[in-house]
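From the shared-data thread, chain only:
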Amino acid sequence: MDKNILRKVNLLNWLHAEVKPALGCTEPVAIAFAAATAAQRVEGNLLHMFGNISKNLFKNANGVLLPGTKKRGVTTAAALGFISGNADLGLEVLRDILPEDIQQAETLIAENKIKITTIDSEELIYVDLTVITESAQCRVVIKGAHTHITQISVNNIETFRAPELCPEGSASQLKPFTVNEAVTFIKSVPVADIAFMTAAIDLNSALSAEGQKRPYGLNVSGTLCQAIADGMSKQCLLNQIAIDAAAASDARMGGAPLPAMSNFGSGNQGIVATMPVVTLARHLVSSSETTLRAVTLSHLVAISIHARYARLSALCAASTAAMGAAAGMAWLFTQDETVIACAIKNMISDISGMVCDGASGTCAMKVSTAATSAIKSVLMATNGISAGSYDGIVDDELEQSINHLCQLTEIAMKQTDRQIIQIISDKASAESAN
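Structure, as tokens:
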């Protein structure tokens, strides 16, 4: 088969594999998905639910509000997954939660019927839950990706087993690709082939609008808007890019009952890969096709970068997703590959040290920071300004610059990740003791 056709098919497969609707933070959703999957296979009232999750999953699952609730925590996610979760909806498993379901979940937790512990795991995304009811029991194991079930056992009889993927999850069999390949693809791909990416624009724009209607989470977007109203800042494109991105993250992390279009398993990554590009396209009055191509390029570049390091790490992946946004915004301005490369290198030089200290309302702050860095880096690039080989981990060549960032994440930042997890675990233990 022609190499260009193979490349096109590969990139489209990446998009289908890694750009999906997700309701709520995907780490507690993975727990709810496991519980919901088990609930489909047993009848009767819950007697006991127990199991293990990886410490990396716990880091991102413990502190964030669950969608449609004011509740947080891994046991609440498991309880709601069992009570009202719909495993057929994948990452939108908690879409149909009702107020009475929340009350029932609280009852199960108060009766100590759910016990989930954290373990050291080679798989960063790992869930092993067993549900026991009056009539049956079911064990569900998830590894590698948020909804990748590797084992199901009912009444101690294995009923399903899937190949255990490497930590990169369901896309592990796809061929890695460069930023240049993504740009070449976006220049020539028929718009009909990427029309499905319109959903990323629609879902994340709706989430941003919701975040600007009412305060969610830490209300980062509201604070920025108030600063403008108070005369401490100005209504301008740069501020609007930060506001629109932060608002979507505020809503998502603050429990809004609306899905985000995720990127590489994260709603916040999907948000920051989408909203800065959409806001700039609106400002430039770009055509719908140009906007679609730019958003698709953004998501592809975000995937290209994140596929080179672990799905969960100490690096805040909003930063690498925003490098995708920088590529998409540079495309809107110039469609020049050199400008795109310079913008990404500028971002690597700017926010390569932003750590992920767990999913929470503060993610919206990081999203706004990453979005601001993206547009700043693009404006520098359009003026011919670029970080180069004398600037820290940046190299004259873009792909080598990206690889340096990912090496930093994969090697040096592993101890940082362990320390962050230890701090969060110690806090959780102290809170439980009180």
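The two ends are 64 Å apart (CA to CA).
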